[in-house]
Design a protein that fits this description.
Length: 168
């Protein structure tokens, strides 16, 4: 007697457990890849931000050092506050260009201006970060830093965390 076989596949409990385990492993693998890509993008963004922040701060500090050197020259010449401010105003362009040239970083712009008894320093990066500093010049031709602020001047572009076929 021949036995008739039917086309039904019987799945036992062990086969069902293996099937569920394989599906869960596949889902976990996709989640792991997505998380790794997102972590890479965030780390890259953080690296760029920190690098630009330090570059802005370095140029700002160099500009402050040049203001300090200019004031030291004026103190040695026993100049008045008005003469020292006029000297700083006349050399404001040189102040920013020298600081940028010595920074070795591309994509930065710097400006310096004198208003009343304050020197206003601004250093900007092409990616949107900006350093604003205000130095107040005292009667004895010393300075105090009254403001040193890092800010973002434009909206940051959103990067895609997933670059698969469905990403636009």
């Amino acid at each position: 007697m021949a036995r008739k076989t039917t086309g039904n596949v019987r799945i036992g409990p062990i086969s069902f457990l293996v099937l569920i385990s394989v599906i869960m492993l596949a889902v976990m693998a996709v989640l792991c890849l997505t998380t790794a890509r997102a972590s890479y993008v965030m780390a890259d963004r953080q690296t760029t931000t920190v690098t630009n922040t330090y570059a802005l701060d370095t140029v700002g500090q160099r500009m402050v050092a040049q203001v300090d050197a200019g004031l030291a020259t004026q103190r040695a010449a026993e100049a008045s506050l008005e003469d020292a401010l006029a000297y700083l105003n006349a050399n404001a362009g040189l102040l920013s260009s020298t600081a940028l040239r010595n920074s070795g970083t591309d994509g930065l712009t710097a400006t310096a201006s004198v208003q009343n008894n304050q020197v206003l320093l601004t250093v900007s990066a092409s990616e949107g970060r900006m350093l604003s500093a205000v130095l107040t010049i005292n009667e004895n031709l010393t300075y105090s830093i009254t403001d040193w602020k890092m800010s973002v001047t434009q909206e940051q572009t959103q990067e895609s965390l997933w670059s698969g076929d469905g990403a636009k």
